[in-house]
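Sample intake sheet
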Amino acid sequence: MITTQQLYQLYLQHPVISTDTRKIAAGSLFFALKGDKFDANTFAQQAIAAGAAYAVIDNPAYQLGDEYLLVADVLTALQDLARHHRRQLSIPVIGLTGTNGKTTTKELINAVLAQHFKTQATQGNLNNHIGVPLTILTIDASHQVAVIEMGANHQKEIQLLCTIAQPSHGLITNVGKAHLEGFGGVEGVKKGKGELYDYFAKSGSPEVGKSASLAGQQVANAVFVNSDDQTLLDMAAARKLGNVVYYGTNTIDDLVSGQLVENSPLLALEYTNNKTGQSYTVKTQLTGAYNLHNILAAIAIGSYFNIPAAQINAGIEGYQPKNNRSQIVKTESNTLICDYYNANPSSMFVAIENVGKLQAPRKVLILGDMFEMGPESATEHASVIQKALDTPVDERIFIGKDFESQNSKFKIQNQEAAFYATAEDAIAALKASPITHSTILIKGSRGMALERLVELF
């Protein structure tokens, strides 16, 4: 069996990790991870043939030569290797989690920091027990700061990811209703996300206790907290966190405070750095009033790391949303708010509220089922329907069996709401009666694949 230290020496010589034989990088280390329906040990020989320098395996039956490195468990070996590599780094590592807005906030933080430093950040949503170690192992000596997104759908997952990423700085965007089935309810979500605060609350933890070095200067560890979010304030206070940096809308104790000045549908905000007393106006390419705190978080972190305001503002203004998160798409006839990467009750509510506040001649909600709701599914889908009915829009369309099962309960007899059991049913109806000259929110869980609707508008 090869040890972590021995594996690390090979990693230093071959610092590229491959996990997919279809994308083998020449000279890389191939980790034969297992999935629900595959065992990559069976692909180890193929990986070597494709150009991998070594294959890390955990089944001795596939150890066909010196280039096959046997470990007890490939996933554990990958995580241990990343953990060891992280300990060699002295740069700031910003770890963030939360129910909603993780990826957008991560991208905004990276956009700001990259204006001044060489950064490395989680690519896409590689934020789980495999993605986090893979991201850590892409950090090299040239990087000055890293931004690591951490996702979870069960308790103890953030705890594990913290032991791998060992963040020097932390942020929870919010705590809401998502993955209720896995977390065991809202309190379970709060406990699970709070594991990031737990990490920073550890007394005497060496990785938490040391400060990071940035551009030759020591930077004190800190947790960034939204001062408008009472849940986060209470969670931070309960753990008696040390260096807390606040951001929000109207508190002079915040490092950064700001307000929206435009939402039509792109956002513009005015913010003040309360340390310098200087105020600025920034136009963004984001939609959704709920993104205000995501933007303020990035500005606060940039300010904390002493990035000049002009560069902070350039980072915010230059960021273009992607991956179907709060993404504006203008067609010949309509303005689409494409937000169908994922959905849960918390994100549904704020997205619906945002459409209600928009200045637009005609507004439409197209909402798809929310997954992983567990026993709360019927109640939560009903609450979203009620929220949509209470919001001033011109048309409401609900798609999916969970929404459709609520149809008889609401007994809607007018033309302002329609229910369809499947996306195919909705597509047929929309082809028969096209929507034009409207601002349309399309939002639902990833599994609903609502991107199929876009070509209809």
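Comment: The mean pLDDT is 91. The chain is about 35% helix and 20% strand.
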